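Field guide to reading this record: the first block holds the primary sequence, the second block holds the structure written as discrete tokens, and the final block holds curator observations. Each block starts with its own label. This record concerns tRNA (guanine-N(7)-)-methyltransferase, catalogued under organism Paxillus involutus ATCC 200175.

BLOCK 1 — SEQUENCE
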Amino acid sequence: MGKRKRLAHLPHETNSLLPQKKHYRQRAHANPFSDHALDYPSSLEAIDWSEHYPAFAASGKTPEFADIGCGFGGLLIALAPLFPDTLMLGMEIRVQVTQYVQDRIAALRTTSVAPVPSPMSLSTTTTPYQNVSVIRANAMKFLPNFFPKHSLSALFFLFPDPHFKARKHKARIISPTLLAEYAYVLRPGGIIYTITDVRDLHEWMNAHLDAFPLFESVSETELREQGSGPVLDAVYNSTEEGKKVERNGGEKWLACFRRKEASRMIAP
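BLOCK 2 — STRUCTURE
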């Protein structure tokens, strides 16, 4: 495992404070079924979100956006200034990659200049990126340990591991079993965003989401008409994987689904 530079040892120039990925080398993928010696909260009450979002410590807020398998944090960094009042959490299983995102956020909080507040913004923070954080976690096993029922308004699955071999399909992040958990933490009206450069995986995710009774497909056009264009632009272009696909002239396959309100049968 390669050595990495700590922020305290770097020069004070803005560009030098930002961590460099070459010091955080790790395998591209991790086996989600392996024992990764993870620490996870025993209950929702055991989580102290003020450690992740100190500027919002007195607000009582909890994360509303969750980026599952956030990689190097490109989506989080892109969305944080656009939604300064919304807490966002990245979940990443790889040690070094998680550390990179933590250091990146810390550096941005230190070096970024606060923008002029928008009249529509309710944020009381004085510096950007206070609303974004990352945690090392296995979302396939412990997602409900972090998020209460109906607490999220957006779930992101961007360029997930395709697990090409049929015997590995059980490790795909979209599956009937996991969709029940996503429906649990996502509030009615909330959106699941998926994107991949692998058409087979796109068709797999689309088919499973479409077959699940608590999700309904929503078109990119409809989402843009509803004001989600900046989110979709970030989904397409903010991640390392998305940029790589763009450079290589590859295709990106987007599928978005809305959490439906559950209908209840009333006995006569």
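BLOCK 3 — OBSERVATIONS
Strands lie at 65-68, 88-92, 132-136, 152-158, 186-196, 215-218, 253-259.
The first helix runs from residue 14 to 17.
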